[in-house]
Write a structure and sequence with these properties.
Two copies of one chain form a homodimer. The first copy, chain A, is α/β, with parallel strands linked by helices. The first copy, chain A, has a domain of 172 residues: Acetylglutamate kinase-like (Carbamate kinase), CATH 3.40.1160. Chain A has eleven helices and 20 strands. An eight-stranded mixed sheet of chain A has the order 3-6-2-1-9-11-12-10, with helices on both faces. In chain A, strands 13-18-20-19 form a four-stranded antiparallel sheet, with helices on both faces. In chain A, helix 10 crosses helix 11. The longest helix of chain A is centred in the first third of the chain and has 25 residues. The first copy, chain A, is globular and about 75 Å long. Chain A starts with a strand and ends with a helix.
Chain lengths: 402, 402
């Protein structure tokens, strides 16, 4: 008898019909002889609606009270799913984060799981109950409720799978697996049957939006086998695990990220310490810098260009303008950019990847503004209007021959 | 420094403006140097909306899961009220039932409070925090959440006041006190400055709908001074306490209850055991019977008439029809009835009360179907179309002379 953890996102439980559909998936898994623990997010727009209510009352409410508010969303969905499963005649019990033993630190709004006290979970599984757990939430040492931040329900599911050594953790979403590119945009995009944790991490970071990064990191750390699949179709999804058997495949996928702003700092005096000062200032404000490019100095000055998340753009301009080391005229922020990346563990041993990618972009008249590489990914920054065309072209270059 | 418990119902926190209004009342009380614990219900229609969601998914969901669902309503309102108080710049913390130490039995849907572990509540009060507690909810010995049933938030507030020996428990509602009759219907209705627990209990039972009965019983048991007042006007309300100083007043109020069905059982054989059998059947189904009237037997048969809550009417007919001791033709259910009552501790020593009431009804051509009395109340059952006219007439008879 296997123990399977299943996670369903907000769109999978958005209304009564969807909840009934999830109840069918869960009970089918249970009927097949498995123990099942289910993690659910808040229904559809519930979280956004609650945030809007809070903003109307106090836009600067404490994070503790925001967490208190938002936890209600998952509470509603676990109860409703349990009711739908009762209707099908199966034994079921819903649990909130604190009841399921989720102990977190006290960083309200983006708490980290410290441990899961599995006593209650195990007891309910031993009673042969289907267990429905509220995702995204836990409790800190003061017995106050906390939330895990964006994508927290994925993390909740993986954490349970890790703590109880589950045989599999299935993440149900509105796509039926991980594709070589966004299937809504690229017509030849192919679903992968397997992908490694590291490749998945790069794809997640790069905006593929299939799985939350923290959950993949945790799955890798505790060696939890993940499956990404759709709650709307009953077809096998994509397995995420340590070693992929498809070693030959050069690249895994092409991803687009439009959540990027490019900051250019012009005519910086060619002193050694200046780049350090700039990035130290940003680090202190907790602004993550991604690609960095520095032009070769010509006339005793150099240009420094880097990318940040789009919504940090204004803050960066303000911080640097007020730094005393740059004038406002030296700082340019461009948000009309996109990052297109190819990811694949095979890339390391295939030097031709960059050439194939650049050729595809050149053939389509797409100008490359910046380039960044890691062992398993290659990213280019381009104009945002070219982004979808770039993804299709690059995808075509790598996958059409197969 | 006094400790004051304040309870606000769902209509008092129905929207952002109402929440802000409550925040003002609470912080004014705190500013005056008091410690304040606030109990809140779910916003406006939240509970009804959640019940509708549940019914759509499973009309026969377990009470445990219903409680899990409904508790989310108060969770939302405590967080929102805390945010509104933060906006005014006061220290505040919201607590759910389990965090506030509400230990209940396991009767989901109508749990009884067994005790309140006051450690957390006291600690927050000692820190000079305004404490916002989710009403209506607690936790049982299995660490599952429970709800206290209808009017549960009143009970939560009184229980906290009793456990912490608060100086006062203020119940804020949409009326500004307890009146001698419904002020929307009876134009000379007068607000009372004081009323005794027993009188309040009779008025609550009789449909005055100002305060929940259980909360008044608990207040009487632990001698908690209650005040009923409005969250929309800043005027003193009605104090409910053990001994009222206004001994001279004959009756306290006139109340109407239209939640009544009258069941008549015709031509019952005149055997001793038959009434017992009927009421034993109903008791086993947990149906409360109120007024009972038995006609004197004429032709070897008698008629038995009694009243039950309106929504129990159909069930009673079904139970008795299937009892094997009566035929369906013998059972008549009439839901077009109302109970009008006068309540007052002075009644015991003033034999004229019944005469005054009956005369007022007679003068207005209102037919009395049944009569019921206790030490401090006198109720008549009449046709529902006469109810408002009856209340006005009876109120006029007792209060106009003053």
């Amino acid at each position: 008898m296997a123990l399977i953890v299943q996670k369903f996102g907000g769109s999978s439980v958005a209304d009564a019909a969807r909840v009934a559909n999830v109840a069918n998936i869960v009970t089918d898994t249970y009927k097949a002889g498995n123990s099942v623990i289910v993690v659910v997010s808040a229904q559809g727009d519930t979280t956004d609606d609650l945030i809007a209510k809070a903003k109307e009352i106090n836009p600067n409410a404490s994070k503790r009270e925001m967490d208190m508010l938002l936890c209600a969303g998952e509470q509603i969905s676990v109860a409703l799913l349990a009711m739908a499963i009762q209707k099908l005649g199966y034994p079921v019990v819903s649990l909130l984060g604190w009841q399921a033993g989720f102990k977190t630190n006290s960083t309200y709004g983006s708490a980290r799981i410290k441990k899961i006290d599995t006593e209650r979970l195990s007891a309910e599984v031993d009673k042969r109950n289907i267990v429905i757990v509220a995702g995204f939430q836990g409790v800190n040492k003061y017995q106050d409720v906390t939330t895990l931040g964006r994508g927290g329900s994925d993390t909740s599911a993986v954490a349970i799978a890790a703590a109880l050594k589950a045989d599999k953790c299935q993440i149900y979403t509105d796509v039926d697996g991980v594709y070589t590119a966004d299937p809504r945009k690229v017509k030849n995009a192919k679903k992968m049957s397997e992908i490694s944790y590291d490749e998945m991490l790069e794809l997640a970071t790069l905006g593929a939006q299939v799985l939350n990064n923290r959950s993949v990191e945790m799955a890798k750390k505790y060696n939890v086998e993940l499956e990404v699949l759709s709650s709307l179709t009953r077809v096998p999804g994509t397995i995420v695990k340590e070693v992929t058997t498809m070693e030959k495949m050069l690249i895994r996928g092409v991803a687009k990220d439009t959540d990027v702003a490019r900051i250019s700092i012009l005519k910086v005096p060619n002193n050694p310490g200046i780049a350090f000062k700039i990035f130290d200032l940003l680090a202190k404000k907790k602004i993550n810098v991604d690609i960095i490019l520095q032009s070769v100095g010509r006339d005793q000055t150099k240009d420094i260009t880097f990318t940040v998340a789009k919504d940090s753009g204004d803050a960066v301009v303000e911080i640097l303008s007020n730094s005393g080391i740059l004038t406002p005229e030296q700082i340019v922020c461009d948000t009309n950019v996109a990052k297109v990346s190819v990811v694949g563990a095979g890339m390391e041993t295939h030097p031709g990847t960059a050439a194939t990618m650049f050729e595809a972009l050149y053939d389509n008249n797409i100008n490359i503004q910046m380039i960044s590489t890691s062992e398993i990914k290659l990213s280019v920054l381009i104009d945002i209007v070219d982004a979808d065309r770039a993804v299709s072209a690059v995808h075509e270059a790598f996958f059409s021959a197969e």
